[in-house]
Structure to design on (560 residues):
């Protein structure tokens, strides 16, 4: 079992994804080490978000393997064949990852605090008082102390997204996934969300981000990947890729966004 | 950043000068006044005409409005309405969940149920449920093609009250299933995904996330259906079930040869019950509207 100790937090091996005939991911390999921040950039439709959603099984992969800390996701290997896991087992696996969506997806019928403690109370079965104490602290951490009683529609976009981050953190995930977390925000609200993500990076959280904020990617990424047409075209240190990309497609994309 | 200013802040033109509001004479609406006077005249005429008309037999109305026979009818009608809805709502929910299933047999069964119960008249259905004990004298639980385990006389199970409730409830479930389906369809897919992402089980996603949100859009049409059901209970004479309000007032009318005051008695009670149901609906809507009907504050953007 020594393999598990050195296994990367996230390991993607030859991931393919088809939607009908459309080949959305065409063989993606990617490792994210524990404590590493991996940022995916690339044009719309390049498969970045799909790849992210494969990690927590919101999309079922068509070929390949997803492993978190060495553990195969979605299937059990037996007699050389893959057996689909039950829904309950998949739900349990999903608790190891936290996800933040482009459109926040807060539960509108619950207050900010109720959103945050929903998972701990109803999935992890923590006591309500314990979850509340932790939830209040988490809202404090994302800079929303005192706003726990607000409903999502009483909060600005940036505040809603920070509640969504607190909600994901409340499950104590091993990996945080961010799917264009600032794309739906007014420009002046982007900074407050990025600051929270930077704090998480400093605290050593393993993260994968899909973003269009190239400046932010440069600042926060340990590892940058550029995706196009369902493939990882280029991968490496952000300063290398952003300043002297090898691939023509990367250069063409960066020339438009930088 | 988040200060909620209750006062409409008065634009001060930058300086400290007080604002002098425009003095305005409000617009006049002579057309509206003509309409109001016309309506008042019609209302007074109508009330006078009904109240003083001897053909309405108001004496008989007052004699029977609180009679024990009528009161028993009111109680049964209310009971039938509530129990039939209590049967229909879980059934409709099960139908909606079946419609969302990946299994074509479950989807097909739910589709067939809705097709059948919406497609046949409720009067016919009630008559068949009333005949159930004649058509199937014994209800038997047995191993298919094997020995029987339990066998009961149908008459003891499908009594007229049970037949009425099953008939009304099954019919209603088909209509409610469509209302519920629309309610669940209106929820953003991201809600399910967010719940899945925190590792919620499918059952919890339904009970904690989807149902509370669907309630907001489901309640107004379901309130409509409940009020419709109240009046549909008058069809249970097809079973025949003979204790409901409409049957009671009709029986008195046939005895006294005075249908009009007894129809008014029935109508008055239906109105009273409808009003009570509307109050209940108001509170349900308020509860499930939480998070939606509150003041929207666009915090950081101000």
């Amino acid at each position: 079992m020594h393999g598990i100790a050195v296994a990367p937090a996230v390991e993607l091996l030859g991931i393919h994804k088809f939607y009908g005939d459309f080949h959305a991911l065409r063989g993606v390999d990617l490792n994210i080490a524990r404590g590493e921040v991996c940022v995916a950039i690339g044009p719309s439709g390049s498969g970045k978000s799909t790849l992210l959603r494969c990690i927590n099984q919101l999309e079922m992969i068509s070929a390949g393997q997803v492993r978190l800390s060495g553990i195969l996701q979605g299937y059990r290997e037996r007699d050389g064949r893959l057996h689909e896991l039950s829904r309950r087992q998949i739900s349990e696996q999903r608790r190891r990852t936290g996800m933040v969506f482009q459109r926040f997806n807060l539960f509108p019928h619950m207050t900010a605090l109720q959103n945050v403690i929903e998972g701990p109370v109803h999935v992890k079965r923590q006591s309500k008082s314990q979850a509340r104490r932790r939830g209040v602290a988490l809202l404090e951490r994302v800079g929303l102390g005192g706003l726990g009683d607000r409903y999502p529609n009483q909060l600005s976009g940036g505040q809603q997204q920070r509640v969504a981050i607190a909600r994901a953190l409340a499950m104590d995930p091993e990996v945080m996934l961010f799917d264009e977390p600032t794309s739906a925000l007014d420009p002046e609200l982007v900074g407050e969300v990025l600051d929270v993500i930077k704090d998480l990076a400093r605290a050593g959280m393993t993260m994968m981000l899909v973003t269009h904020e190239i400046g932010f990617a440069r600042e926060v990424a340990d590892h940058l990947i550029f995706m196009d047409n369902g493939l990882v075209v280029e991968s490496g240190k952000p300063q290398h890729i952003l300043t002297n990309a090898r691939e023509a497609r990367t250069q063409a994309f960066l020339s438009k966004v930088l | 950043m988040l200060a909620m200013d209750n006062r409409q802040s008065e634009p001060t033109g930058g300086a400290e000068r007080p604002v002098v509001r425009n003095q305005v004479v409000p617009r006049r609406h002579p057309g509206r006044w003509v309409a109001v006077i016309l309506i008042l005249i019609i209302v007074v005429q109508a009330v006078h005409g009904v109240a003083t008309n001897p053909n309405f037999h108001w004496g008989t109305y007052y004699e029977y409005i609180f009679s024990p026979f009528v009161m028993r009818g009111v109680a049964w009608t209310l009971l039938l309405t509530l129990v039939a809805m209590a049967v229909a709502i879980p059934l409709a929910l099960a139908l909606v969940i079946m419609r969302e299933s990946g299994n074509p047999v479950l989807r097909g069964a739910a589709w067939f149920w809705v097709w059948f119960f919406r497609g046949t008249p409720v009067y016919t259905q009630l008559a068949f449920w009333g005949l159930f004990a004649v058509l199937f004298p014994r209800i038997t639980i047995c191993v298919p093609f094997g020995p029987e385990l339990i066998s009961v006389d149908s008459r003891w199970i499908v009594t007229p009250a049970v037949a009425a409730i099953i008939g009304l409830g099954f019919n209603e479930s088909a209509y409610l299933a469509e209302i519920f389906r629309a309610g669940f369809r209106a929820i953003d897919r991201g809600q399910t995904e967010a719940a899945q992402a925190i590792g919620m089980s499918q059952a919890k996603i339904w009970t904690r996330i989807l149902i509370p949100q669907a309630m907001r859009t489901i309640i107004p049409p379901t309130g409509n259906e409940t009020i419709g059901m109240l009046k549909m209970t008058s069809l249970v004479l097809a079973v025949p079930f003979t204790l409901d309000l409409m049957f009671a007032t009709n029986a008195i009318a046939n005895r006294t040869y005075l249908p009009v005051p007894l129809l008014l008695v029935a109508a008055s009670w239906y109105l009273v019950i409808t009003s009570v149901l509307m109050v209940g609906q108001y509170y349900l809507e308020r509860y499930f509207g939480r998070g939606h009907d509150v003041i929207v504050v666009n915090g950081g953007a101000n």
Q: What stands out?
A: Chain B touches chain A through 32 residues (CB under 8 Å). The radius of gyration of chain B is 28 Å.
